[in-house]
Amino acid sequence: MTLMKLRLATNDFELSILFGISQKMVSKNFLTWINFMFYQLSEINFWPTKQAVSDTMPMQFKKNIFHQHELLSTLLNFQYKNPLT
Asked: What is the pTM of this model?
């Protein structure tokens, strides 16, 4: 039910009819599972350390790392005018 709500963006009313439970139960069930998934998935380290990235980087990237850093800093410092203002 939680995955259906997240993936299909179904509302509580639709899910309550589909599963034969009240809207309040759908809401409680959804929040319970979201909290459970948060606590379980928050223990996973999604980002490797800088050393791990450096150790597994292909040699071609290591040779051009200075140029890539220069390009990235140039792109990040690029000033643009907001078209909405």
From this structure: 0.54
